[in-house]
Amino acid sequence: MKVLVIGKTGQLGRALSALTTNVDMQFADRGVADLSFPENIDDALAPFEFDVLVNAAAYTAVDAAETNAETARIVNADAVEKMARHCADRGALFIHISTDYVFDGSRPVPAREDDPTSPIGVYGITKNAGEIAVRKHCPNHIILRTSWLYAAHGRNFLNTMLRLAETRPELQVVFDQTGTPTCTADLAKAIETIILKYTVSPTDFPAGTYHFANEGVASWYDFACAIFELSGMRTIVQPVESYAFPTAAKRPSYSVLNKQKIKDTFGIEIKHWRHALRDCLTERNTTHE
Ligand SMILES: NC(=O)c1ccc[n+]([C@@H]2O[C@H](COP(=O)([O-])OP(=O)(O)OC[C@H]3O[C@@H](n4cnc5c(N)ncnc54)[C@H](OP(=O)(O)O)[C@@H]3O)[C@@H](O)[C@H]2O)c1
């Protein structure tokens, strides 16, 4: 079973390439497959031999998407449709990563896979359009929604907090947005589990939409406090409301995913977000030395 991953340089792409696994994975970056040009995708994918395509690439700049809506739509929806059609033509499984931002976050209960979507920003709208295209054009798919991704490397909340704390003894962080921080290493392992299941039973495979995030619930304020506590730092974190940091894009205020379906279907055990954070900080300390 051969796997091709699009998005080699992103947080998730790097976590997938760091897996110790027997899965035969190849990786493509923007130089190989530029999703800004969906018309070239068939030609870009043609030279690769694969049974599973994992799309870990996306236009992920949530605020910039508000003013670059066309680019976000091309990358997150048009290119995704092309990949879905390509997989269907080839008979490959398409694993596409999506987001909690397809929901508006107005209900204070963890979202289930079949809850109606209603994104409130351009990024979420384009990711939702990508999901619709996958369902329409490639029945043999996994749409994996996740939330609040971070990793030991890359641009993310964890590394932003640690960088800011180098020069500031006190930080203000919003406490009125709730979600679940998710370490890319754990998401990568969940993807590996899904691929291994497909390897064993490709004809009897539970395709569809799934949610994966680490366990538990936190505000960004809670996440920041845990980062400094587990890093042994004395940085003071002050809770503030979102209006203190106006952003171009509105964010869901309650963005928690219900993960029962992926646990029941694939037997995936999920770490609590604090344990995942602790493990990620250990990895970060090891690799930054
Ligand atoms: N980050 C989060 O908090 C979060 C939350 C929920 C869901 N997700 C979803 O999870 C997935 C992985 O996110 P991530 O955080 O790992 O993303 P990321 O670190 O922002 O990386 C994005 C990846 O997409 C690639 N990419 C962007 N535009 C491209 C284009 N036009 N052509 C080819 N490649 C392109 C980037 O390549 P370059 O390096 O060349 O730019 C990079 O490899 C995405 O589907 C995202 O929507 C993310």
Write up what this structure looks like.
The protein is α/β, with parallel strands linked by helices. The chain has a domain at 2-153 and 182-215 and 256-271: NAD(P)-binding Rossmann-like Domain (Rossmann fold), CATH 3.40.50. Helix content is 38%, strand content 18%. The protein is built from nine helices and 13 strands. The strands form four sheets. It has a six-stranded parallel beta sheet with strand order 2-1-3-4-5-10, sandwiched between helices. Strands 11-8-13 form a three-stranded mixed beta sheet. Helix 1 (11-17) crosses helix 6 (184-200), helix 3 runs parallel beside helix 4 and helix 5 packs across helix 7 (220-230). The longest helix has 22 residues, at 69-90. The protein is globular. It starts with a strand and ends with a helix. The mean pLDDT is 97. The chain binds NADP nicotinamide-adenine-dinucleotide phosphate.
Going by helix content, strand content and strand pairing, the class is alpha/beta
CATH superfamily of the domain at 2-153 and 182-215 and 256-271: NAD(P)-binding Rossmann-like Domain
CATH topology type of the domain at 2-153 and 182-215 and 256-271: Rossmann fold
Shape assignment: globular
Q: What order do the strands of the largest sheet run in, or round the barrel if closed? A: 2-1-3-4-5-10
